[in-house]
Amino acid sequence: MLKNIIIKILSAYTLILAGSNPVLADNINVTFAYIGARDHSALRGVQQGLEEANLQGQFLNQTYKLDIILSDNVLSHDFSPYLAVLTAVDSDTFTELSAALINRPVFNLSIADDKLRVACLKNALHIVPSNKMKQDAIKQWQKQASGTTAKAQAWHPDFVKFAARDLNKRYKKKFNISMDDYSWAGWAAVKMTSDAVARTNITDPTQMLNHIKTALSFDGQKGIDMNFRETGQLRQPLLLIENDKIVAEAPVRGIANITALDSLGILSCEK
């Protein structure tokens, strides 16, 4: 009990240390919608984020809930109760959802397709890195480590810097499985939104969409402020993996400016 109270207080003060005071107010109730398979790791990440948001919310008079919606006939569902929609669906379904929910944040937790980025859907927020981002990260690494083969990921269970170790431990303890790119994306979508609620008391979807697109400064346990491009893609560093071991981070030091996240995956909106 005492441990939970301490964690709760520390969570709230983390926001203060991040540079913005949490706003205490009357009770705020926030509901997210998740669309996708129940066994998708993105959902586990969402659930991890929700648990942490509620722990923090106890200190700030905020409560967070989640509705899981079947992807069949999803467009007939009433989305008006939701501050944001979290998805692990195919590209066509995601595009249809974004068009139907034009003034509401719709998070992409699973699709790397570059075409979704160049479409520049007004309310699409892509947490997972695009294929172009991953390709650029690998090219940078190959310039420094010629002849090696690597893959680029958003997350890895062995990542320990910037409190990543603690996040991995919390997730592993809850689900008895390691956090991957999709589960990190689900956690990150809830975390950035709930932190925004804590800092601003925004509960209107249109205002939240505008805040996330224009005023977001999100660490995500990656050690650098991240925000969204015009394409809706989250700027973020990537991990380079060989034989399931982290060998480097991108932007790659010595090849690109390590604070310039736009060295990875620049795409332009289709006209």
Which characteristics define this entry?
271 residues, alpha/beta, Rossmann fold, five-stranded parallel β-sheet, three-stranded antiparallel β-sheet, 8 helices, 8 strands, 40% helix, globular, disordered N terminus
Rg over CA atoms, rounded to whole Å, is 18 Å
Number of domains: 1
Write the CATH fold name: Rossmann fold
Total of DSSP H or I helical runs spanning 4+ residues: 8
**CATH superfamily assignment?**
Response regulator
* Distance between the first and last residues' Cα: 56 Å
Helix percent band: 25-40%
* Strand line-up across the major sheet: 2-1-3-4-5
What number is the mean pLDDT? 90
**What is the tally of beta strands?**
8
CATH class: Alpha Beta
Q: Which stretches are low in confidence, meaning pLDDT under 50 for 5 or more residues running? A: 1-10
Short summary of the structure?
This protein has 271 residues and is of the alpha/beta class.
Walk me through this protein's architecture.
This protein is of the alpha/beta class and 271 residues long. The protein has one domain: Response regulator (Rossmann fold). 40% of the residues lie in helices and 15% in strands. It has eight helices and eight strands; from the N terminus they run αβαββαβαβαβαααββ. The chain has helices at 2-17, 41-60, 91-100, 114-118, 131-144, 164-175, 181-200, 205-215; strands at 28-36, 62-69, 84-88, 106-108, 124-126, 151-153, 238-242, 245-250. The strands form two sheets. It has a five-stranded parallel β-sheet with strand order 2-1-3-4-5, sandwiched between helices. Helix 3 (91-100) links the parallel strand 3 (84-88) and strand 4 (106-108). The protein is globular. The protein starts with a helix and ends in a 21-residue tail after the last strand. The model is unreliable at 1-10 (pLDDT under 50).
